[in-house]
Amino acid sequence: MADQVYWEDIEVGSxxxxxxxxxxxxxxxxxxxxxxxxxxxxxDKDFALGNNLPDIIVHGALKSAWLGQLLGDWxxxxxxxxxxGCSYRGMDIPGDKLTCKGTVTNKYEAGGEHCVECDIWLExxxxxxxxxxxxxxALPLKG
Length: 143
Description:
Layout: E1 15-21, H1 25-35, H2 45-50, H3 60-75, E2 80-88, E3 98-110, E4 113-123, E5 129-138
């Protein structure tokens, strides 16, 4: 986890430090077991290829979890994720370098909290955004 980020240090346009993931088939099997999502397209290559997929594919919920990790790492122990969600726009395969990124789109005070709105996304090694999302976080003030 990085140092604590504070509301005063954030500006619209600020970038969230990226989070890089390089999933492998074993990780997808572990996620299938943990999440209960045993659809074969995530771990059985022959089944995936037989369904016109390029390979086994990364679970959408796993990509969402990584975006949650991106936010949690960024806001630190004193920050709070208020809301986030994402939609899946493309498939990702194991062995590809996937990068979670984000940028600040708005900053405001509401109900005594210091809020930051963000666009977040996951992109593959071709820089295609395969998972898009938005988030609202509350950040602490300095001192």
